[in-house]
Design goal:
30% helix, 9-stranded mixed beta sheet, two-stranded antiparallel sheet, 595 residues, single chain, alpha/beta, 17% strand
Length: 595
């Protein structure tokens, strides 16, 4: 799978409406003949497909992981492993920490570092910091918890997912890490050659054997089953592990994965430049598309698409059909006077359509995926990603971590100026560059190598679940769907035997929005790996504490999350219950609810 989308449509001028009509895009090269001189001058190279060494070892034939009892806690302070320093060991009493309002049982907390070093590049001390939590009543399982953002901090190793018990509650031994740098080193760690590689993938590869050895020391044997999960950047870690470390893990749960993160970050800067064209206050990009205007657009989307599944319930289940049915230019009123929240200007409509169609260069070479129109764009999180993040998060990430060679630290003095002045035509290609001490491009160290040929994962009998919200404001579910489409083609239409993708209507980035965003994805993955029970659907529920759940929804609303490309269609019964829906493959031209 190449990493850029072809906005020329095979020589046809780029048209945003045709892009939405062909929602599930295929990926092709960004840098065409017009950019060839840039490629040669920078020495750009596409990341080579990586094949894990050796033959895949099949999963042991166990019906389930076997329980065990913690044999040691305080003595783990003496645990010895190469380049590893244990800094804290303590026993945590039951109920000291909780998840979802429920107490977590007694466990052993171990903190430490690996590969501590003083950098010859900047003189700073770097290390891979970690914590492990090992339950006294162990289920025989290990979970790697991938964390989000730029990492740099060690989140509590609870193994929490969105809904249901956390990994620690389920008896997993869980590890969490800072991916090789601390918070004070964000974002300039990206200028340190080894730190950027640890952040990309090497921290996971370094920590995994150590964690398994620590488990062996604590319980007298290693884990029967190993899993990895995370959302956002943690979802990226998970998908990278599925390609690089499939021989080390049996189950992979990726939520809202930014597996093409450098592309998405460049697209964010491009998007900021588009929003700036229609922002009424230049310093505040959110004035380009206000909450009232986003509500107006969401209502127009619902008017066109809510009933496509046979039930008007404030949700769009068939997102692909919705992209064909909805037009921002046709279906949202155009202003004839001043902007007042009841209309969009012609310029706003053009910018919104362009942004949803996907970032591209001036000569129509696509940089990143399109995004689907979904009523979840009303949420505050969506606005945060679209209007705030390009300045506060994406600008430094692109400048220091994803661009090779990295930018000068002076850009920190004016990140908005850097973002709005970023020359996509010349700078976007640098995410493929290598230069001197930077031996891997960001598209090599940040993304899964050859992600649509997961042969090691498949041949071992390992399993993968990917979950993505239809209103993710930063990583597009269109990109994830395109990934699965190609994975499926490369496996003769049989990818569902080892990988399944679920899209969540209305959900924003990882969670939130007008959505049933709570699910038991980790439990479903365990059942698939250990019992052979493949999930045909996941039952998702609303989070009663989510302020963006509409007032007229039941706080007990549930919906089925269907295996892509199936969609939930209303059959009959209680409109608030998942049992009233069936997952069906959409049929072009069929009016749902009239079967």
């Amino acid at each position: 799978m190449s990493r850029f989308f072809d906005g020329t449509r095979g020589g046809i001028p780029r048209d945003p409406r045709s892009q939405h009509a062909r929602r599930r895009h295929r990926v092709s090269a960004l840098v065409g003949a017009a950019a060839a001189s840039v490629v040669l001058a920078l020495g750009l190279a596409m990341p080579a497909a990586a094949v894990p060494p050796g033959s895949p070892s099949p999963l042991p034939q166990l019906s389930a992981a076997q329980p065990g009892t913690l044999q040691a806690c305080e003595s783990l302070v003496d645990f010895a492993f190469p380049s590893t320093k244990i800094t804290q060991v303590s026993r945590v009493a039951a109920g000291t920490v909780s998840n979802g309002g429920q107490p977590i049982g007694e466990h052993c907390l171990v903190r430490g570092t690996m590969n501590e070093r003083v950098s010859t590049f900047d003189g700073q001390t770097y290390a891979i910091g970690f914590e492990m939590r090992l339950p006294s009543a162990w289920a025989g399982r290990f979970l790697y918890q991938g964390n989000g953002g730029l990492d740099g901090s060690i989140a509590p190793a609870l193994g929490a997912t969105r809904g249901g018990e956390s990994g620690l509650q389920m008896g997993f031994a869980v590890i969490s890490s800072d991916a090789g740098h601390n918070g004070s080193q964000n974002p300039l760690f990206g200028r340190e050659p080894q730190a950027r590689l640890d952040y990309g993938y090497q921290a996971v590869g370094t920590l995994t054997p150590m964690a398994k050895a620590l488990i062996t020391n604590a319980y007298g044997r290693g884990p029967d089953r190993s899993y990895i999960t995370g959302g956002s950047n943690g979802g990226r870690h998970t998908m990278v592990a599925a390609a690089r470390y499939a021989d080390q893990y049996d189950g992979f749960l990726a939520i809202s994965p930014g597996f093409n993160l450098p592309q998405a970050a460049v697209a964010q800067l491009w998007g900021a430049q588009q929003w700036a064209q229609v922002a009424t206050t230049p310093a505040d990009l959110s004035t380009a598309f206000t909450p009232a205007e986003r509500t107006l657009a969401a209502q127009a989307i619902l008017a066109r698409c809510d009933g496509l599944d046979g039930l008007a319930d404030g949700m769009v289940q068939d997102s692909t059909a919705c992209q064909q049915a909805f037009s921002i230019k046709r279906d949202v009123p155009r202003c004839t006077g001043e902007r007042n929240g009841t209309c969009l200007t012609k310029e706003q409509q053009a910018v919104i359509d362009e942004i949803f169609a996907g970032a591209h260069t001036s000569n129509n070479k696509d940089i990143y995926s399109s995004f689907p129109f979904d009523p979840g764009l009303t949420q505050s999180g969506w606005a945060g990603w679209k209007f705030g993040s390009p300045i506060t998060r994406d600008a430094p990430a692109v400048g220091f971590i994803f661009t090779t060679p990295p930018a000068d630290p002076s850009i920190l003095a004016d990140l908005q100026g850097y973002a709005l002045g970023f020359d996509v035509d010349t700078e976007a290609a640098k995410i493929y560059a290598t230069s001197g001490i930077y031996t891997e491009s960001s598209m090599s160290f940040m993304t899964p190598p050859d992600p649509t040929h997961l042969d090691t994962l498949r041949d071992r009998g390992a399993k993968m679940i990917v979950i993505h919200g239809a209103s993710d404001g930063v990583f597009s579910p269109d990109d994830t769907a395109a990934w699965f489409d190609e994975l499926d083609r490369n496996n003769g239409g049989n990818a569902e035997q080892f990988a399944r993708y679920f899209e969540v209507p209305g959900m924003g980035h990882v969670a939130g929005g007008p959505a049933t965003d709570q699910h038991h994805g980790l439990a479903a993955l365990v059942d698939w790996v250990e019992q052979g029970s493949a999930p045909d659907q996941l039952t998702a529920s609303v989070n009663p504490a989510n302020p963006e759940v509409p007032a007229d929804w039941s706080r007990t609303r549930t919906r089925p999350l269907c295996v892509y490309p199936q969609v939930a269609q209303y059959v009959s019964g209680d409109p608030e219950s998942a049992s009233s829906f069936a997952c069906e493959t959409p049929h072009p031209g069929l009016a749902y609810g009239t079967r």
